[in-house]
Amino acid sequence: MECKLAVSMMHDYLDDDLPDQQKRELKEHLISCPDCRVKFKELEQTDMLMFSLMHNSPVASDELAHRIMNSLPIAKKDRRFISWIRSHPALTAASLFLVVMLLSSVTFWNQDGQLVVKGSDLDQVVIKGDTVIVPSGKTITGNLTVENGKAQVYGDVNGNVTVIDGTLYQASTAHISGQVKSIDQAVSWLWYKVTNMFSDVAYR
């Protein structure tokens, strides 16, 4: 009998699945082969150890279980801001919305250099390059907003005049009934955008 076949038969022998004839052949081989005898002893000891562990597993005492439970890491308490967020979900959502809007606005502030003119009576204004002119004798009813350009007011504006990232010139002949705002900083511009957004929502 070859040693490889003998080793494969050892497992079946230890599991008591080997036929009688093969048991005899294996025993004869173990008598004549010292290496296989050593291998069989090792397998036999391993098998006995596994049997002992499976059938005589020790039961943990209450003290041991208590020590194990105490050694486990304690769950961290919720931080204050997390509990605050959970307590104020509406305010949290509104804050996140504002942050997203502000970040988007900063991007546009940095990238958008194109002239933008907003108002109700834009047919009364003259646009030359990046300059928006309200001619003398002309009247604009409503607000006028100029972004990324120059505003020159010689006539009348029945509303507010806002210049964002630009310059405003108001002639002595000009009459502006509302507020005059010149916004040159990103923070002020963002505040203007946010207040206008809420104003638009309020009037809808």
Going across the biggest sheet, name each strand in turn: 1-5-8-11
Number of helices: 7
Main sheet summary: 4 strands, mixed
| Residue-averaged pLDDT | 77
Kindly give the count of domains.
2
Give the DSSP E fraction (strand runs of 2 or more residues).
15-25%
Tell how many strands the DSSP assignment holds. 11
Low-confidence stretches: none
- The radius of gyration is 44 Å
Proportion of helical residues = 40-55%
Distance between the termini: 96 Å
Rough shape? rod-shaped
Q: What pattern of helices and strands is seen along the backbone? A: HHHHHHEEEEEEEEEEEH
Structural class of the helix and strand makeup? alpha/beta
Q: Oligomeric state of the chains?
A: single chain
Report what the structure shows.
- With about 200 residues, the protein is α/β, with parallel strands linked by helices.
- The chain has 2 domains: about 5-55; about 110-204, no CATH class.
- Helices cover about 50% and strands about 20% of the residues.
- The chain is built from 7 helices and 11 strands.
- The chain has helices spanning about 5-15, 20-30, 35-55, 60-70, 80-85, 90-110, 185-204; strands spanning about 115-120, 125-130, 130-135, 140, 145, 150-155, 155-160, 160-165, 165-170, 175, 180-185.
- A 4-stranded mixed β-sheet has the order 1-5-8-11. A 4-stranded mixed β-sheet has the order 2-3-6-9, with no helix packed on it.
- A hairpin with a 2-residue loop joins β2 (about 125-130) and β3 (about 130-135).
- α1 (about 5-15) packs across α2, α2 (about 20-30) crosses α3 (about 35-55) and α6 (about 90-110) packs across α7 (about 185-204).
- The longest helix is centred in the middle third of the chain and has 23 residues, at about 90-110.
- The radius of gyration is 44 Å and the shape is rod-shaped.
